[in-house]
């Protein structure tokens, strides 16, 4: 019987992407909805790595199963690296994708195209209860659009145009996006690591 691998994310879009990247591995992939409800850990780390590791260790110890969690966000050069680790709560308490995108567009309102460079960063953390987490990092370079583009994806996807492309992640289907994305890069590395454990 396959061992359980918990995706430690309350974000359904993200959890679905992580699960998609693990298809075919000999694990029984579960989501948080398959377990009793527990409070989410407070993401108070100063880096994506610290937050990803904290989430994976927390959920693994809560439920006694292997856990894969990630922390990811958008780093905008013109904003000194913001929103960074605060990407999900950039617009304050009760932040939504809509309010975060609106705040970002407002912050860059007077920023010309040549200075709208940005990157998505993802750190994935895998942990077996009682062991040290294994981390993998993926990034994708791009720029911030002047308006939201496309209905797909989640988070800042409709604003992010990856380098070498003229469409945002919000205009790409999941297969195309995962081939390019920070999460795709991190999870393909993690997948290789997980395959080496078998």
Which shape, going by the Cα principal axes? globular
Based on CA atoms alone, the radius of gyration comes out at 17 Å
Cα-to-Cα separation, first versus last residue: 13 Å
Give the number of helices. 5
Named at the architecture level, the CATH assignment is: Alpha-Beta Complex
Q: How does this structure look, described?
A:
- By secondary structure, this protein is an alpha/beta fold.
- The protein has a single domain, classed as Maf protein, CATH 3.90.950.10.
- Helix content is 30%, strand content 23%.
- The chain contains 5 helices and 6 strands.
- The chain has helices at residues 12-21, 48-63, 97-107, 174-180, 182-197, and strands at residues 3-7, 27-31, 66-76, 117-127, 134-144, 160-162.
- Strands 2-1-3-4-5-6 form a 6-stranded mixed beta sheet.
- A hairpin with a 6-residue loop joins strand 4 (117-127) and strand 5.
- Helix 4 crosses helix 5.
- The two termini are 13 Å apart.
Short description:
The protein has 198 residues and is α/β, with parallel strands linked by helices. Helix content is 30%, strand content 23%. α1 (12-21) links the parallel β1 and β2 (27-31).
Spell out the blueprint of helices and strands:
Layout: E1 3-7, H1 12-21, E2 27-31, H2 48-63, E3 66-76, H3 97-107, E4 117-127, E5 134-144, E6 160-162, H4 174-180, H5 182-197
Helix pairs in contact: 4-5
